Amino acid sequence: MNADISRPAPHGCEFIAHLVLPDAHVGNLLPHLPQITAPVLAIAGKNDSTIPAAKTVIIGERIPHGTTVLLIGLDHALYMEQPEKIAQCMMEWLDNVLSSSP
After folding, report:
1. Cβ-count burial 63-94 (b if 16+ within 10 Å, e if not)
2. How far is the C-alpha of 49 from the C-alpha of 70, rounded, in Å?
3. Is residue 1 part of a domain?
4. E strands of the chain, at which residues?
5. pLDDT by residue (tens digit) across 44-100?
6. Cβ–Cβ < 8 Å for 95, 69
7. What is the tally of structural domains in the chain?
């Protein structure tokens, strides 16, 4: 499952994705990501100055049921910066996963 990145999600969560090339860190995990069968939410701040958001995009794209969410204006401590927004995005994602499961 991939998020619809063409428009903002309900309640103001903004999705952004772009094509990137893996670096050495993420590249080591790439062969294993398609083996993950559980739905995965890869969430990060678009302005993360510690871990580039591109790594989160790669993880979300390579996992078969992965969803990537990059939140505009947030850095590495996104859970402390805007915990309500993070919780809201997680709940929306979980509702989506549960409503689409058999």
Report:
1. bebbbbbbbeebeeebeeebeebbebbeebbe
2. 13
3. no
4. 40-45, 66-71
5. 888 888 888 888 899 899 999 999 998 888 888 888 888 998 999 999 999 998 998
6. no
7. 1
pLDDT tens figures, 7-41: 334 333 333 333 333 444 444 777 888 998 999 99
The Cα 25–Cα 95 span in angstroms is: 31
Residue numbers of the domain that contains 63: 10-100
pTM exceeds cut of 0.85: no
Other C-beta atoms lying within 10 Å of the C-beta of residue 60: 24
Find the CATH number of the domain harbouring 16.
3.40.50.1820
For residues 77 and 67, give the distance between their C-alpha atoms in angstroms, rounded to a whole number. 20
Calpha distance 89→21 (Å, rounded): 26
